[in-house]
Amino acid sequence: MELSSITTAAFVAGTVTLGAGTTMAGDVELFHDKGFWSEALQQVGDVAGELTGNRIIESAYAAPEQYKAFIQSSAASGDMPDMFTWWTGGIFEELVSSGQIGSLDAVWDELISSGDFDASLRDFYTVDGVAYGVPLHLSRWVALYNKAQFADAGISEPETWGDLMDAAEKLKAAGHTPFHATAQDGWRGFIWFQEIMIRTNPEAYKGLHDGSVAYDSDAVRNAFQIWSDWYANGYFSDPRSNEEAADFARGKGAIYLIGDWAIGLVEAAGMKAGDDFSAFIMPNQDPSLQSSAILEGGPIVLSKAALDKPDVVNALKFFVSVDGANAWAGASGNALGNNNAEPPNSVVAKINADVAAKGTIALNRWWEAVPAELQGEFVAEFNRFMLDPTMETAEKVMTTIQSLNADYWASQ
Amino acid sequence: MPEINDNIESDAELLQRVGWSGSGPEERHQRKRNFWVAFAFMSPAILLVSSVLLVPVGYNIYLSFTKWKKFKGLDEFAGFGNYERLSTNPFFTDAFYNTSIWVGASVLFPLILGLGLAVLVRGMLFESLFKDIIFIPRILAPTAVGVLWFYVYAPDGVVNRFLGLIAGREVDIGWLYQDNTVTPAIIVTFVWQTVGLVMVLILLGLNAIPKDPIEAAHMDGASRLQVFWYITLPLLLPTLLVVTILSVLAGFTVFDLLWVMGASYPGQRTLSLAVFQYFEAFQKGSWAFGSAIAVVLGIVVLTVTWTQAILQARVDRMIR
Q: How far apart (Å, rounded) are the C-alpha atoms in residues B196 and B215?
């Protein structure tokens, strides 16, 4: 009798335990590689469950390489996950070429007709005229700045290139490091390269991505010269830091060029958006150039099979709805471009207003625009320059990158 | 006339004494039966090893001769195309060279240090406590060790501060960022983590050495150094060879430390063949090319360890 009771209790306890971790009917799994957003994604998923009956269960892969391998092998075996995140650019086109990703044209038609999204954003996720993704997040790459240090240096947001150089000198004179940049995690080397390129020669910047402009061209050499000069002037922080966002919060650099998704990280490090830091769009060297900002927008995609699953489609639609966007903004501090959603914080609201006022156009981030096969090797060379920012190193970097670049485009 | 030895054993008795029970039909049938019984007991292990090792390795070799389209799978047979591409890849040579350095260092330093610690610790007061302390790094996960030492080597980390105290000025060496310091720095971490295991293995070997020849040598007036050099070390040779084989394997396959500690180093992909293979296969999604790198690495490792195994067998015969 006693043994039977113990056995029954153990069975029930085991069932309950198992039940707590398993998905229920109507749940939809969202695969991604952004573990730092796991908690936030699950918060949105829980809200989705409450409001629509379709709870989103986030499922994270730790490293991007493992995640890519998972999706790649799923595609090769013809068994793609229903809903997962990806990247835009060449790697997005590669995914679409598998023929297993579903068209989201119908979803976009609804989003645009409702006024939730601008038609121009659809282009970001379009391949050969068909939209295959919706935004997981939409981040502009802006210059976050330390308000206290700006006040201390007696400067305001730079409107022109001259203002920017003047700001750098005044910050330096006040004992602050003007620009904050690191080689943390091995991928950040392209950030200032892309920014200087779009401020000096945006057409050449675009040409880099289709092989029409060489990485040892005059436009690129000019960008490296500016970059090297700024290092020589002492404008940059130590690139060897491994705590970039926290260092900005500690005041190790006055201007932090990064995607606005980092606002949450800076706030977690102790600064308050709007009070302690704000943001501006970097000015162009040539004032006649149109205002532009790098746009980064990782997509959520559905497999073709998932289009026939109403639960999955509903979950996707919720994520980009006003309720979903607000939940996401509150949980992660990220916007996803829904016009009718609340901006996640006052800094993003300010940037949105600046973009509208200046007619700022969006340019594709370098990371997505460069062929996926070349990303790692190129960014390693940019990091190499940051660690030894002389023109001698720059020449070697340009030569190495162009050699790989030329080989790649010759093989296409 | 020489004495006839009445004790000469018969051929059958002689064969039986050396383990050959005979070659009659009954004996042959028995041997066959024994073989199949042994095979039956081994078959679960054979199945396991085949499915999780031999099949994947075989498929990897096959893949290395193909073109693999991302997201579409196997495309077509490529012959030796991946290997030709490897031979002209600028990063492969650097990765191969750095791997050689790693193998050399992973054998030499833990062995010398481990042997020294084993001799030092053996028989001393609180031997067990010292052994445990030295062994602790070995039980830490390599990734955790990598993260810990990443901060130890940080520009404002423990190493630079310690050197600054000695030098009397600020020391700002980017240990994990410079070409000439990154590999030695990570090797120091590797040795720190592995020396405990090497020490323990050598201690086991030392404890297995018979005491008689050592006592006899002491009685004959040999010094401690002479005893160590002429008796202990030769008898320890089999253990040292086993340690060497394990160290060589560890050197060829080191990845975690290089991945974590070399994350911000621009030339990370050339730190070793294993890291280079990971970059090509998983970061770039070139599975067929990555397979070719794995095959080359496998051939190199097999060649080196096979050579060592032959050496080991010769030493074992010599000792007996």
A: 29
- Residue A29 pLDDT grade (very low, low, confident, very high; cuts 50, 70, 90): very high
- Using CA coordinates, name the residue in chain B closest to A381: B266
Asked whether residue A268 falls in the same domain as residue A304, the answer is no
**In the prediction, which pLDDT does A66 show?**
85
Q: Which residues pair with A257 in a beta bridge?
A: A143
Query: What is the share, in percent, of chain A residues with pLDDT greater than 70?
Result: 94
Owning domain of residue A187: 143-294+367-410
Q: What residues in A contact B285, CB-CB < 8 Å?
A: 68-69, 72, 372
**Residue A19, pLDDT above cutoff 80:** no
User: CATH number for the domain including B283?
Assistant: 1.10.3720.10
3-state DSSP call for residue B80? coil
Contact A98 B284 (CB under 8 A): no
Identify which of B73, B269, B284 has the shortest CB distance to residue A380: B269
Q: Looking at the complex, report in whole angstroms how far the Cα of residue B177 sits from the nearest Cα belonging to chain A.
A: 7
Distance CA B296, CA B8 (A): 57
- What are the tokens at B168? 């009397």
Q: Please tell me if residue B269 touches chain A, with a CB cutoff of 8 Å.
A: yes
Report ipTM (2 d.p.): 0.80
Secondary structure class of A182 (helix, strand, coil): coil
Closest Cα of chain A to B79: distance in Å?
Answer: 18
Q: Are residues A132 and A195 in the same domain?
A: no
